Amino acid sequence: MKATIDIPDDIYRKVKAKSALEGRAVREVAIGLFQDWVEKPEVAKAPDNFRRTKAEESTPAWFGCLNKYAKNAKGRHDMESIRKSIARGIAQDRKL
Asked: How far apart are CA 67 and CA 76, in angstroms?
């Protein structure tokens, strides 16, 4: 099926340049992105009766996703220690 999609010029130039560097056609890249998107599992929806507390409502959904790495900060709570702790934890997980 053919479709016409209006893509901002700056984004299209970047896509075209990157796909050329990878030796891929823009069409191939677009099909891959669409395929990944439609095959992506659905995100579970909260039940209709689910209620969040006021504190939870003001907390972003991503907050705490790196908590498991923060323990490596060895009790220091400054941003540099936390960043280093997260970097170490991710490196260990990915065996870098």
From this structure: 14
